[in-house]
Amino acid sequence: MKRVIKFASVAWFLAVLVTLTLGQETRVYRDGGGWSQEITGNLGPAKNLRVKVEVGSIRVEGGSQPGISYVIRRRAYTSSEEQARREFESYKISAYVKGDTAWIEADWQGGRNRKCAGDFVISVPRNLELAKIETEGGDVNVREITGRAEIQSGGGGIRLDEIGGSISAETGGGGIDIGNVGGNVNVRTGGGGIKIASAKGKINAESGGGSLVVVSGLQGAVLETGGGGIHVEKCQGTVRATTGGGTIDLGEIGGPAEIETGGGNIRLIYAKGPVKAETGGGSIELNGVPSARAETGGGGIVAKFFSSTGQQTDSLLETGSGDITVYLANDLAISIRAAIEMANGHTIRTDFPDIRVLTEGGNWGPKTVTAEGNLNGGGPVLKVQTSTGSINFRRTSQ
Question: For 198-209, what is each residue's pLDDT tens digit?
Fold first, then answer.
């Protein structure tokens, strides 16, 4: 029995060796002031691809070919070919197939020589089920596969496009650029920017301080950055956008929106669901909402409310110092409660006779201005409050 096991182990090892060497060619040639090495090989068909390298850029491209092939190029900035070959040998590259997975691995033997890096170009079948890639320091580019992509880089940039399944990508500090994705998107960078062109699944994006951009999302998004700006053109579902201090600019949101910034401005074109917007000191502009809770420590607020067939909820617009302008649709059923705490030099103006304005206090003392009224029989309560600033109620046809 032991002999049988030993024979099977040896057979497996020999099979791996055959896989390592079959169809692989290596050449070393003079290249400018140094030397280059090019390794080409073919691993045959496989459902999955795993790449794990210590350093080097990686590009994976899907196509019509049935199997997996690769081209690896490396440079060594040495004067002699012999020294260059020693450096190439110190960065060991292995390529083999195990089960239904093709593996390409590269690691340093002994001390690391950062002058000898590598570029890995891998061609795969378009119907690849999974591309899982790890590198400690290079860029990663994957495109044209129908399956999933899982990427991790110690600090390089990541670019993914035309991925049929879900993706997860993380880098210590580089930028992340996502094209078209057929599933969920889960990406994180320690400090670079993130851009997502189109995602059919849910989006979860986080940056330590870079900007976040989403062009199109179909199932909602959670976006967070330590200090950069956030921009979303359109997204279905719920959107949660948070930044430590940058501006937030949202376009058409097909559900509720939760928006928070430590001090930047907030702008929203449209949201189908309730909106919650908070900033430590910037302005807030909500151009089309069914209901909203908007608070700022010191900027102005502009909010446009439209009639909604969905469930109506109470709203609040509040600023510590600034003007508030409210646009209300003609057929909107709503109850108004408004107040200016220190109204000297400020007042409440309204286009609606049903909103009654009351002033208390004299010219030489504290003065407060309040207003209340029910439009179209009344409805959810809209509270509008500013410590010092004017309040305006304007009529709109929409």
Answer: 999 999 999 999
